[in-house]
Amino acid sequence: MARVAVLKGGTSLERQVSLRSGARVEDALERLGHDVVPIDAGADLIERLRAASPDAAFVALHGRDGEDGTVQELLEILDIPYTGSGVLACVRSIDKVLTKHLLVEARIPTPEFFAFSETAFKQLGAADTLPAIEERLDFPIVVKPASGGSALGIKFARTAEDVPGCLVSAFAYDQKVLLERHVSGRDLAVSVVEGRDEPLALPVVEAVPREEDFYDFEARYEIGRTDFVCPAELDEDHTARARALAVGVYKLLGFYGFGRVDLMLEDSTGELQVLEANAIPGLTETSLLPQAAEAAGIDFDSLVGRILELALERGRPAARV
Questions:
Q1: What is the pTM of this model?
Q2: Active-site residue 276, yes or no?
Q3: DSSP state string for 215-242
C-alpha cells in the first residue's frame, strides 16, 4: 500500500468544495488500506510534503493554485508523483478563453464568444465594442470569469442594461472575462477516465435544476437543488456524439487520469456545444464524476483507487523527462 498525501482546501474561492472532495478521497483511500496524510494546502505546503515524504500526492484542489498547474509544478520540483493532469493541461483548461480558442481551432463546436481583459475595458475603450458584441451574440449573453470553476461569478445578461453589472461581477473573480452566446437546452456532462488502452467516456449526466433556470454554484453543491439523470435520457446518436466530443476534448487539452467536459444540447438545433473542460472535477456527494462512475459500475473507492494507480504508473516526474 502507498503513503498518499491528499492535497485539499487551499485559498481559492472553491476551498469549501475542495475540502469536501478531499475528505471523501481520504475516506476512500483509508478503506483501500493506504496510509493517508491530509494536507490543507497553505504556506507550509512544501514543508509538510517534505516531512510526509509520500509515495504520491492525490490532488483534490479546485480552482486557483490547485487546478491551474501551480501545485503540479511544485510537485514536479519535489519529484512527487501526483494524480491527474500535468502542468500544461491544467494551464490550458483553467483558462476558458484559451480552451475556447483551442476548440475553435480544432473545429469542435462551442458557442460563439468574445473575451477581453479588465485593462482593455478600462484603458483601451473596450466598452465601446459592447454594442457590436451584443448584436453578434444576441441576448441572453452569458458573462463569466475567464478562469475558475463551480459556476462562480457566472451571470446572465438578458438585456443590454444587464451587461455592465454582469461585467462588474465577473471582474470581481478574474481580470479577464468571457462573453458567450447563451445556449438554451439541456445541461450535460461527460466524465472521462483513463482506460487501459485509451481514455474511456463514462455515461452522460444531465443536470436539471429544480427551481432555477441555470445550474449555478448553489444548484451544483446544495443537496436537493438539482436532479441528476444518469445515464441521461438521450438517443443513441446524441449519446455517442457527446461521449466522442468529450474524449476529443480530453485529448486536445492533454488531460491525464481523469477529467470532465461540460456540454449543452441546444434545443433549437439539436446540436451539441462544448462549454468547458475541468482537469480536476469535484469528488463531493453531488459531483458529477462519481455519479457517472457509479452508473458505469465503478464505485467511489474503485474510482479513487484507479486515479491513484494511474499516478503511480506514470511515476515520478524526473523519471519522465
A1: 0.87
A2: yes
A3: --HHHHHSTTSEEEESS----HHHHHHH
